[in-house]
Amino acid sequence: MGLELLRLFQLVSPALPVGAFSYSEGLEVLVQSGRLADAAALRAWLEAELRRGLVAIEAAHLPELMLRLAAGELDAAAERDGWLLAQREAAELRAQQRQMGRSLLQLLADLGWPLPLSLGWTGAWAWAGVCLELPPLPVLEAYLHGWSANQLSAAVRLVPLGPTEAQRLQLALAPLIAERAAALLAACQTGTDPAADGLWSSGVGAGLAQLRHAELYSRLFRS
After folding, report:
1. Over the chain, what is the mean pLDDT?
2. pTM across the whole model
3. Is 194 helix (H, G, I), strand (E, B) or coil?
Protein backbone atom coordinates (compact mmCIF):
# COMPACT_ATOMS: atom_id res chain seq x y z
CA MET A 1 0.00 0.00 0.00
CA GLY A 2 3.04 2.31 0.40
CA LEU A 3 3.39 3.18 -3.30
CA GLU A 4 -0.37 3.40 -3.79
CA LEU A 5 -0.65 5.75 -0.82
CA LEU A 6 2.06 8.04 -2.15
CA ARG A 7 0.35 8.17 -5.54
CA LEU A 8 -2.93 9.02 -3.85
CA PHE A 9 -1.20 11.83 -1.95
CA GLN A 10 -0.09 13.28 -5.28
CA LEU A 11 -3.56 12.98 -6.79
CA VAL A 12 -5.30 14.83 -3.95
CA SER A 13 -2.54 17.38 -3.40
CA PRO A 14 -3.59 21.06 -3.56
CA ALA A 15 -0.56 21.48 -5.84
CA LEU A 16 -2.28 19.40 -8.56
CA PRO A 17 -2.50 21.95 -11.42
CA VAL A 18 -6.18 21.63 -12.33
CA GLY A 19 -7.56 24.95 -11.03
CA ALA A 20 -9.95 23.47 -8.44
CA PHE A 21 -9.28 26.38 -6.06
CA SER A 22 -11.16 28.78 -8.35
CA TYR A 23 -14.55 27.04 -8.00
CA SER A 24 -17.10 26.95 -5.17
CA GLU A 25 -19.82 24.85 -6.88
CA GLY A 26 -22.62 27.08 -5.62
CA LEU A 27 -21.22 27.53 -2.12
CA GLU A 28 -20.73 31.23 -2.79
CA VAL A 29 -24.46 31.65 -3.43
CA LEU A 30 -25.40 29.83 -0.23
CA VAL A 31 -23.07 31.95 1.87
CA GLN A 32 -24.24 35.24 0.35
CA SER A 33 -27.86 34.26 0.94
CA GLY A 34 -27.16 33.47 4.59
CA ARG A 35 -27.84 29.75 4.24
CA LEU A 36 -24.35 28.77 5.36
CA ALA A 37 -23.31 31.18 8.09
CA ASP A 38 -21.23 28.97 10.37
CA ALA A 39 -19.31 25.71 10.66
CA ALA A 40 -22.34 23.70 11.82
CA ALA A 41 -24.41 24.69 8.78
CA LEU A 42 -21.51 23.99 6.45
CA ARG A 43 -20.95 20.55 7.94
CA ALA A 44 -24.63 19.66 7.55
CA TRP A 45 -24.51 20.79 3.91
CA LEU A 46 -21.37 18.80 3.08
CA GLU A 47 -22.70 15.69 4.78
CA ALA A 48 -25.96 15.94 2.83
CA GLU A 49 -24.09 16.26 -0.46
CA LEU A 50 -21.83 13.31 0.35
CA ARG A 51 -24.88 11.20 1.15
CA ARG A 52 -27.31 12.30 -1.55
CA GLY A 53 -25.64 14.74 -3.95
CA LEU A 54 -24.28 14.37 -7.45
CA VAL A 55 -20.73 13.99 -6.15
CA ALA A 56 -21.75 10.57 -4.83
CA ILE A 57 -23.25 9.59 -8.20
CA GLU A 58 -20.03 10.60 -9.94
CA ALA A 59 -17.93 8.64 -7.47
CA ALA A 60 -20.14 5.58 -7.94
CA HIS A 61 -19.36 5.52 -11.66
CA LEU A 62 -15.59 5.60 -11.20
CA PRO A 63 -15.19 1.78 -11.13
CA GLU A 64 -17.05 1.42 -14.43
CA LEU A 65 -15.06 4.22 -16.02
CA MET A 66 -11.80 2.68 -14.83
CA LEU A 67 -12.77 -0.70 -16.26
CA ARG A 68 -13.77 0.81 -19.61
CA LEU A 69 -10.64 2.91 -19.92
CA ALA A 70 -8.31 0.09 -18.86
CA ALA A 71 -9.93 -2.18 -21.47
CA GLY A 72 -9.60 0.44 -24.21
CA GLU A 73 -13.38 0.86 -24.48
CA LEU A 74 -13.03 4.58 -25.11
CA ASP A 75 -16.41 5.16 -26.77
CA ALA A 76 -18.25 3.56 -23.86
CA ALA A 77 -16.20 5.55 -21.35
CA ALA A 78 -16.85 8.81 -23.21
CA GLU A 79 -20.58 8.08 -23.35
CA ARG A 80 -20.76 7.45 -19.60
CA ASP A 81 -18.64 10.51 -18.83
CA GLY A 82 -20.89 12.63 -21.04
CA TRP A 83 -23.95 11.32 -19.22
CA LEU A 84 -22.43 12.35 -15.90
CA LEU A 85 -21.59 15.79 -17.27
CA ALA A 86 -25.20 16.23 -18.39
CA GLN A 87 -26.39 15.72 -14.80
CA ARG A 88 -24.87 19.09 -13.90
CA GLU A 89 -27.65 21.63 -14.44
CA ALA A 90 -25.54 24.79 -14.41
CA ALA A 91 -23.44 25.79 -17.42
CA GLU A 92 -20.75 27.01 -15.02
CA LEU A 93 -20.50 23.57 -13.45
CA ARG A 94 -20.29 21.84 -16.82
CA ALA A 95 -17.54 24.27 -17.84
CA GLN A 96 -15.75 23.53 -14.55
CA GLN A 97 -15.92 19.78 -15.13
CA ARG A 98 -14.59 20.16 -18.67
CA GLN A 99 -11.77 22.53 -17.71
CA MET A 100 -10.56 20.44 -14.78
CA GLY A 101 -10.82 17.29 -16.87
CA ARG A 102 -8.74 18.81 -19.67
CA SER A 103 -6.13 20.01 -17.19
CA LEU A 104 -5.80 16.61 -15.51
CA LEU A 105 -5.62 14.76 -18.84
CA GLN A 106 -2.93 17.17 -20.07
CA LEU A 107 -0.94 16.61 -16.88
CA LEU A 108 -1.21 12.83 -17.26
CA ALA A 109 -0.16 13.08 -20.91
CA ASP A 110 2.88 15.15 -19.89
CA LEU A 111 3.72 12.46 -17.33
CA GLY A 112 3.64 9.77 -20.03
CA TRP A 113 0.00 8.63 -20.07
CA PRO A 114 -1.70 10.25 -23.08
CA LEU A 115 -5.34 9.48 -23.78
CA PRO A 116 -6.83 10.15 -27.25
CA LEU A 117 -10.09 11.27 -25.68
CA SER A 118 -11.65 14.36 -24.13
CA LEU A 119 -13.24 13.69 -20.75
CA GLY A 120 -14.73 15.68 -17.90
CA TRP A 121 -13.35 15.69 -14.37
CA THR A 122 -14.85 12.34 -13.34
CA GLY A 123 -13.60 10.52 -16.42
CA ALA A 124 -10.17 12.13 -16.13
CA TRP A 125 -10.00 11.08 -12.47
CA ALA A 126 -10.81 7.51 -13.48
CA TRP A 127 -8.03 7.60 -16.06
CA ALA A 128 -5.64 8.86 -13.36
CA GLY A 129 -6.62 5.86 -11.24
CA VAL A 130 -5.82 3.53 -14.14
CA CYS A 131 -2.49 5.22 -14.90
CA LEU A 132 -1.40 5.18 -11.25
CA GLU A 133 -2.52 1.53 -10.91
CA LEU A 134 -4.85 2.26 -8.02
CA PRO A 135 -7.71 -0.01 -6.89
CA PRO A 136 -11.26 1.39 -7.07
CA LEU A 137 -11.90 1.92 -3.35
CA PRO A 138 -9.07 4.39 -2.67
CA VAL A 139 -9.92 6.16 -5.94
CA LEU A 140 -13.49 6.66 -4.68
CA GLU A 141 -12.25 7.77 -1.26
CA ALA A 142 -9.82 10.25 -2.81
CA TYR A 143 -12.52 11.64 -5.13
CA LEU A 144 -14.88 12.35 -2.23
CA HIS A 145 -12.07 13.66 -0.03
CA GLY A 146 -10.83 15.98 -2.78
CA TRP A 147 -14.33 17.37 -3.32
CA SER A 148 -14.85 18.07 0.38
CA ALA A 149 -11.38 19.61 0.71
CA ASN A 150 -12.09 22.00 -2.18
CA GLN A 151 -15.42 22.98 -0.64
CA LEU A 152 -13.74 23.65 2.70
CA SER A 153 -11.03 25.69 0.97
CA ALA A 154 -13.75 27.85 -0.58
CA ALA A 155 -15.53 28.12 2.77
CA VAL A 156 -12.38 29.47 4.45
CA ARG A 157 -12.62 32.46 2.10
CA LEU A 158 -16.40 32.81 2.13
CA VAL A 159 -18.09 31.92 5.43
CA PRO A 160 -15.58 33.09 6.90
CA LEU A 161 -14.18 29.92 8.36
CA GLY A 162 -10.77 29.73 10.01
CA PRO A 163 -8.26 27.20 8.70
CA THR A 164 -8.23 25.34 12.01
CA GLU A 165 -12.01 24.95 11.94
CA ALA A 166 -11.80 23.79 8.33
CA GLN A 167 -9.32 21.11 9.35
CA ARG A 168 -11.57 20.10 12.22
CA LEU A 169 -14.44 19.68 9.77
CA GLN A 170 -12.28 17.66 7.37
CA LEU A 171 -11.41 15.28 10.19
CA ALA A 172 -15.06 15.01 11.17
CA LEU A 173 -16.04 14.16 7.58
CA ALA A 174 -13.43 11.40 7.19
CA PRO A 175 -15.56 8.55 8.65
CA LEU A 176 -18.50 9.49 6.41
CA ILE A 177 -16.25 9.66 3.34
CA ALA A 178 -14.88 6.19 4.08
CA GLU A 179 -18.38 4.86 4.72
CA ARG A 180 -19.83 6.36 1.54
CA ALA A 181 -16.95 5.15 -0.65
CA ALA A 182 -17.32 1.58 0.62
CA ALA A 183 -21.11 1.67 0.29
CA LEU A 184 -21.01 3.08 -3.24
CA LEU A 185 -18.49 0.49 -4.34
CA ALA A 186 -20.53 -2.34 -2.82
CA ALA A 187 -23.80 -1.07 -4.31
CA CYS A 188 -22.46 -0.39 -7.78
CA GLN A 189 -20.09 -3.23 -8.51
CA THR A 190 -20.86 -6.93 -8.49
CA GLY A 191 -17.82 -8.69 -9.83
CA THR A 192 -17.06 -6.61 -12.91
CA ASP A 193 -20.64 -5.57 -13.69
CA PRO A 194 -21.38 -1.96 -12.72
CA ALA A 195 -24.85 -1.16 -11.46
CA ALA A 196 -24.56 2.53 -10.63
CA ASP A 197 -27.57 3.44 -12.78
CA GLY A 198 -29.84 2.48 -9.88
CA LEU A 199 -28.59 5.35 -7.73
CA TRP A 200 -30.27 8.74 -7.55
CA SER A 201 -29.48 12.26 -6.35
CA SER A 202 -31.60 14.59 -4.25
CA GLY A 203 -29.22 17.55 -4.49
CA VAL A 204 -31.89 19.96 -5.77
CA GLY A 205 -30.69 22.75 -3.49
CA ALA A 206 -27.15 22.42 -4.79
CA GLY A 207 -28.38 22.57 -8.37
CA LEU A 208 -30.41 25.72 -7.72
CA ALA A 209 -27.48 27.38 -5.95
CA GLN A 210 -25.18 26.56 -8.86
CA LEU A 211 -27.65 27.98 -11.37
CA ARG A 212 -27.94 31.23 -9.40
CA HIS A 213 -24.19 31.80 -9.21
CA ALA A 214 -24.04 33.46 -12.63
CA GLU A 215 -26.54 36.07 -11.36
CA LEU A 216 -24.45 37.23 -8.40
CA TYR A 217 -23.44 40.89 -8.53
CA SER A 218 -20.05 40.25 -6.94
CA ARG A 219 -18.19 36.93 -7.20
CA LEU A 220 -14.93 35.47 -5.92
CA PHE A 221 -15.31 32.10 -7.65
CA ARG A 222 -16.01 30.84 -11.16
CA SER A 223 -18.89 28.60 -10.07
Report:
1. 90
2. 0.94
3. strand
